[in-house]
Write a structure and sequence with these properties.
about 270 residues, alpha/beta, 7-stranded mixed beta sheet, 10 helices, about 40% helix
Length: about 270
């Protein structure tokens, strides 16, 4: 679109977005204007956003750790707080630029769009990356996002579709599993509750059903000294720590106050 056309419609777009309840209306308007190729496309994008479709689904991408992660309708949108999970996980691999050892084996469970796996690979560099999701739409999306990193993406339930050849060899299991308690799903903003799959949100009665399953089986897949890193809430962290310990891991908690982000990290003994 031409600059003059964009500038002429910009105030009206901001007003419509504000009226629809978009808190960051100016920022969203800039992104919509810069992404649209024609006035008609811009009008259609604004209409979808005003109707409540998440901005990232309207744009077709989400910014995550400086990466542009493709997302499509029906796929969980990566959250900014999850950048903390990725940084904590990547830091555990301790790889230097001149490291000639075999690439670290990284598994991204409940991968959604593949943003977590992509983020770890972008930070660490050389990794053997595997990702799993139960949702075929997410798997398709993740394959597109992880191709550049040589990632392999599988559809199935947690560890079930992973190749047996990496069993006992995984250096890093990084997991952004659903952790919203079932009773709290109805309290989520409509953008999440209506437009994202419930399988990516609902973590069971206390929110930790999937995390317990991940922790219980992790020791069979982790290499000695390997790590499991899971995002959770600060309130849920003690319960997650107990699940990690029952799974034979040595757990600790990391928290970033500014992002409201909490990660539980478990390490398998030698």
């Amino acid at each position: 679109m031409s600059t003059s056309t964009s500038a002429g419609r910009y105030p009206d777009i901001v007003s419509r977005l504000r009226a629809a309840g978009c808190v960051f209306a100016e920022d969203e308007a800039r992104l919509l204007v810069s992404s649209a190729r024609t006035p008609d496309e811009l009008a259609a994008m604004v209409a979808r956003r005003v109707d409540g479709l998440p901005l990232e689904h309207v744009l077709g991408w989400a910014e995550f750790l400086g990466l542009r992660i493709a997302v499509e309708p029906g796929v969980f949108v990566p959250r900014r707080r999850t950048e903390f999970l990725v940084r904590e996980a990547a830091a555990l691999l301790h790889r230097s630029a001149d490291d000639t050892s075999p690439p670290a084996v990284v598994v991204d469970l409940c991968c959604g769009s593949g943003a977590v796996g992509a983020g770890v690979a972008a930070i660490v560099g050389r990794v053997e990356l595997h990702a799993v999701d139960i949702d075929p739409v997410a798997v398709r999306c993740a394959r597109g996002n992880l191709t550049a990193y040589g990632g392999q993406v599988y559809q199935g339930d947690l560890y079930q579709p992973l190749p047996v050849g990496i069993r006992g060899r995984v250096d890093l299991l990084v997991v952004n599993a659903p952790y919203v308690p079932t009773g709290a799903v109805r309290l989520l903003p409509p953008e999440a509750r209506v437009h994202e799959p419930s399988v990516a949100l609902d973590g069971g009665p206390d929110g930790l059903d999937v995390q317990r399953r991940v922790a219980a089986e992790s020791r069979h897949w982790l290499a000695p000294g390997g790590h499991l890193v899971v995002e959770t809430s600060e309130r849920q962290a003690p319960t997650a720590v107990a699940a990690f310990a029952r799974g034979g891991l040595v757990p600790r908690v990391a928290h970033a106050e500014e992002l409201g982000a909490t990660a539980v990290i478990g390490t398998k003994g030698p």
